[in-house]
Amino acid sequence: MKLLKVDTVNEAREKLLAAARKKKKQIEFVNLNEALGRILASDLVSPEPIPSFRRSTVDGYAVKAVNTQGAGESIPVFLDVIERIEIGTPAIRMVQPGQCSYVPTGGMIPEGADAVVMVEYCEAFDEKSIAVYDAVSPGRNVVSIGEDIQEEALFLKKGTRLRPQEIGVLASAGVHTVPVYKPWKISIISTGDELVPADQKPMPGQIRDINTYVLEAMSIKYGFEVVSKQVLRDERSLLEEAVAEAMKSCDLVVASGGSSQGEKDHTADVLDQFAQPGVFTHGIALKPGKPTILGYDVISETILMGLPGHPAAAMIVFELMAVWLHRQLTHQPEPKYTTAAIQTNVASAPGRATCLLVELEDSEGGYIAKPIFGKSGLMTTLSRAHGYTMIDTNKEGLKEGEIVQVALL
Fold it and tell me: What's the CA angle centered on 13, arms 9 and 19, to 5 degrees?
């Protein structure tokens, strides 16, 4: 295998995106009650105005606003009640000057009326009329036709992750089957002779497997479908068999460990063996995360990734590469950032971008970003982190008080 030069984060992303754009878009339609958390696969345009009729936001009387001018607590105006409109039924009679109709919250506003006086400001005068003690302006307490969504208006964009509030918008627009991207199928492979399951006490020289659990949790968090997960000894044949099998059904195959240059580090060779035309990145100018491998197989349309064995580094690279790529291909917006003042001077790694984990502390007028220092194998560094900030390759570091952008984890 011909190893390429170490790429910057942006160079690696560009290569990854260029390769993965060849994947066919996988879209499916799901019922509205199954759409929560899914990514919308097309722009949605409303075929009708929402609401489709004028409705009241309060219990009250639909009036001509001009007929209430001059009304007050001591000087009411008197209007004839011509109709009591029930919720869910159409208004029948047109309101003429000097008239009104009772309308409940959500009820239809009759023709001729342009405002609603709340019942609290009205009282019965006799069987057919009321006294009104409030002057209202046109449009008061009225939702107009199309005020929520105009007819033929774009109301949800492709790439929107559907939350409960978007489900409500879809229901209001009558969308009962929703076009969404199919979740990526992912296979997680962890390698290492030293790894034992989390429920097993390690012997001297052994450690509990972390990466499998971390990568599975991240996959679920971002809506991927975990097809398989396994922990392998550092034997090339086992890795070859696992990768070949995973590529039959998965969009993404992730192997953590074995990505460096040691005697038992087979990941780069194996991924290059199965990727056509081959691995295009072996090494990223990133701390932590330098021993990262990226490839793509055009035949099976499978993205292949080799992640560092250290759990924190593997998690960071998965976030910066796999999650970023999925966001690009499904047209999702960039993640939310906040700004903060760095608490202390921080040196960066020469020639490499540095992913600096930080804790955020409230401060007068904003946040303080407190750097979390620790080796990449220590998971507690990630558990304390609220987010991370990237120090550019060409930047020597950060100065105390410098304002940085923090991506929230």
Answer: 150
3-state secondary structure of 130: strand
**Orientation angle between helical segments 236-246 and 267-274, nearest 10 degrees:** 40
Which amino acid is residue 56, in one-letter code?
S
The C-alpha atoms of residue 300 and residue 247 are separated, in whole angstroms, by 7
Domains belonging to the chain, first-starting first, are: 9-26+182-329 (3.40.980.10), 28-50+147-181 (3.90.105.10), 55-143 (2.170.190.11), 337-408 (2.40.340.10)
The answer to whether residues 113 and 62 touch, using CB atoms and an 8 Å cutoff, is yes
Q: Give all strands (DSSP E) within 237-330, no chain letters.
A: 252-256, 277-282, 286-287, 293-297, 302-307
- The rounded distance, in Å, linking the Cα atoms of 402 and 404 is 6
Residue 119, classified by CB atoms within 10 Å of its CB into exposed (0-12), middle (13-18) or buried (19+), is middle
Rounded CA separation 379/364 (Å)? 31
Q: Which of 198, 236, 235, 234 is nearest to 216 (CA)?
A: 198
Tens-digit pLDDT profile for the chain (409 aa)? 444 479 999 999 999 999 999 999 899 999 999 999 999 999 999 999 999 999 999 999 999 999 999 999 999 999 999 999 999 999 999 999 999 999 999 999 999 999 999 999 999 999 899 999 999 999 999 999 999 999 999 999 999 999 999 999 999 999 999 999 999 999 999 999 999 988 999 999 999 999 999 999 999 999 999 999 999 999 999 999 999 999 999 999 999 987 555 545 689 999 999 999 989 999 999 998 999 999 999 999 999 999 999 888 899 999 999 999 999 999 999 888 999 999 999 998 888 999 999 999 998 889 999 998 866 556 677 788 899 999 998 888 999 999 999 998 8
Closest CA to 383 of 217, 209, 186: 217
75-103: burial string, b at 16+ Cβ within 10 Å, e else: ebbebebbbebeeeeebeeebeeebbbbb
Q: Which of 298, 352, 355 is nearest to 321 (CA)?
A: 355
Taking the CA atoms of residue 44, residue 45, residue 46 and residue 49 in that order, the dihedral angle to the nearest 10 degrees is 140
